[in-house]
Design brief:
The protein is an alpha/beta fold and 222 residues long. The protein has three helices and eleven strands; from the N terminus they run E-H-E-E-E-E-E-H-E-E-E-E-E-H.
Length: 222
């Protein structure tokens, strides 16, 4: 594929789903990819309240799981505990990463860049934090968490961007296993009022452009 023709990306707003429904939808698309008959797809949605954690022996970020006010799910992504719930934009890019350089580090940086660009367009401060994955309003205020996985280079999971959720959902855990941070949101950082669906429409072009740029990078066409 030439640098001038990045792979097409299907963007789907799918509304509010339970975590199990979202995972089943991802699994279905991954299976179709592995069978050779699925387009690269970006799922945008919000979840019912749920806590998730990656497959790790260190589960200290959960505190006491018995005290969590919502269900806990262990999933095949990187990273420590996080919360999902209404008012948060979740994005699951289901991509054949062979088209995007087969480099998870560069893929993560592309997701960060897209979210940062979309935040700046809303006049919300956003930046990377050295040594950490995600998007931050300041070194101690985190806007978005990112955790991905891949099966035979088909990507799963993705990002969670706080639009205007009840941030109390994070109070029962150490978000992403990082002490002394506060989770924040677009609304708290001065963005205009947005529904999650409106936020999905706003951020989708930034995500599509970042992925297209990743696919077109000269280093991937040696």
């Amino acid at each position: 594929m030439s640098p001038s023709s990045p792979p097409p990306l299907l963007v789907r707003w799918v509304g509010r789903l339970s975590f199990a429904q979202g995972l089943a939808l991802q699994e279905s698309l991954v299976a179709s990819h592995l069978a050779g008959d699925a387009p690269d797809t970006l799922l945008l949605l919000e979840h019912d309240p749920v806590y998730t954690i990656g497959r790790t022996l260190d589960r200290s970020s959960l505190g006491d799981p018995a005290l969590l006010p919502a269900p806990l799910v262990e999933i095949g992504r990187g990273g420590q505990a996080t919360w999902h719930g209404p008012g948060q934009l979740v994005g699951y890019p289901i991509l054949n990463l062979a088209r995007y350089g087969q480099d998870l580090h560069h893929y993560l940086r592309a997701l960060e860049a897209a979210l940062i660009g979309g935040c700046h367009a809303l006049n919300v401060p956003a930046q990377r934090q050295p040594g950490q994955t995600g998007v931050w309003a300041s070194p101690h205020r985190k806007l978005a968490s990112i955790g991905v996985g891949a099966r035979r280079w088909i990507s799963m999971h993705g990002f969670a961007l706080n639009v205007a959720p009840d941030l109390q959902g994070f109070a029962a855990i150490t978000p992403c296993g990082i002490p002394n941070i506060a989770m924040t949101s677009l609304s708290r950082e001065g963005a205009p009022p947005l529904t999650v669906e409106a936020a999905a429409a706003h951020f989708a072009p930034f995500l599509a452009a970042a992925l297209a740029s990743l696919a077109s990078s000269p280093q991937h066409h040696a």
